[in-house]
Amino acid sequence: xxxxxxRKSLRRRLSKxxxxxxQSRIRESDTGPxxxxxxxxxxxxxxxxxxxxxxxxxxxxxxxxxxxxxLFEVIAVxxxxxDRGGALLDAYAKRLPNMRLIRQHNxxxxxxxxxxxxxxxxxxxxxxxxxxxxxxxxxxRRMVEFADAHDVDVLAPKLVGIGGRRVGASLFASTHxxxxxxxxxxxxxxQKMIRRRLLEEHGFxxxxxxxxxEDGMLLTRCYLASRRNSILADYDYYFIxxxxxxxxxxxxxxxxxxxxxxxxxxxxxxxEGHPDPAVAxxxxxxxxRRKALRFYVPARYRAMSTDRxxxxxxxxxxxxxxxxxRELEAELDFPFLQRSRLVRNExxxxxxRLATTEDHLRAVCRVADPKPNGLELRFGLQPTANYEAxxxxxxxxxxxxxxxxxxxxxxxxxxxxxxxxKFAGLDHVVADLFxxxxxxxxRGPLRRVAASDASLPLELNGTRVYATVNGxxxxxxx
Length: 478
What we know:
Elements: H1 3-24, E1 29-30, E2 42-48, H2 55-63, E3 72-79, H3 85-95, E4 99-104, H4 111-120, E5 125-128, E6 134-135, H5 139-150, E7 154-157, E8 159-162, H6 181-184, E9 193-195, H7 196-202, H8 214-225, E10 229-232, E11 238-241, H9 256-273, H10 277-291, H11 298-303, H12 306-323, H13 326-329, H14 336-344, H15 348-361, E12 364-367, E13 376-382, E14 389-396, E15 402-406, E16 408-410, E17 413-417, H16 419-422, E18 430-439, E19 442-443, E20 447-450, E21 458-460, E22 463-467, E23 473-476
Helix pairs in contact: 8-9, 9-10, 9-12, 14-15
């Protein structure tokens, strides 16, 4: 008998029993509409479950808002918290006249508490906020003013990652009053301000129960039905966290079958809700790239057990058969096209081999210290591999014009012979240098060549080879 497994099983059962006992002691309650219920322009809806110690930071950030408290309402829905958060919520609800506290038994997922918050609100807009995040002090005022000025139905404010959380910075590089659908659809997290009338007119609500990507389903419906979707990037509006302790309402490892089924549900929402099949195809392809093919990032895929690799591939293969015809798949770039073809064939082992190929095709190329005679430039690659071809690509700055030069292997390095002669075709221009690698029958993307730490700039018979401010290699033939 494996006593360690028995003890682990008993602890798990006792933990579940204890959780049920704690839930049985919770009394459902509602403090009722706040003093701002009838005058609020926006209701901040917060599903709360065991969010300490972060919950205090969020509540403090809401108390610090420069928007008149009469113009916003905080609706916190305690989804059966068993930590000290319940007492903290009680204290803030007594202190803040614009706060409403609803307490319910644990639903197990954020969808129901968010829906309870929507139903309790009366404001023009609702803003969905997670209980472990926080807002900039001007956030609510700026969002309401922008939405009013531009008649916005769905507003995506700039997110800033904290606690190691990564946020797609490019999405929030600039403000878009009319955000293209493919652009804003890249963010399916719930931190959006939505016109409440949009939700009511269409009967939109979050799926309830343990449904992965429930926020993505609601947001997709809203984006498709909205008259105007906007991205607001002129201020650090919302600070989104990766927790170091505790657990989110929907924390836990995603199961391949259920997660992929939810991705499929979003794909169906897109195809049913967009009138142009060609645009819908592109939206579904974007979704597939972001929500399915990302699981095959080399380090992530290798870290999975063999069984989980097989399950993810099988689940995604079913999605491909239903939603990604081959002609649509062909529009994918490296490495997504190669990943997708292997997924279609349920080739889990092939995806492991591709992971190694991807690593090799993303090798760092660095110019070696040049020879004094200027007859050659040498380049090193890390990691090293048996490349089928290595090309140096010179791209004329500000254009798409490129010149390719085959590099000669020499031991562990690759050599461009007679560089001054080769670069002679780049008269009167500045060109940035890239490397293109071929291995295992796959051609990789262009990757910038890194400059060496010494011997630059270098003059080669009218060609100046130099390091840019970002540490990359360029040539100047002006």
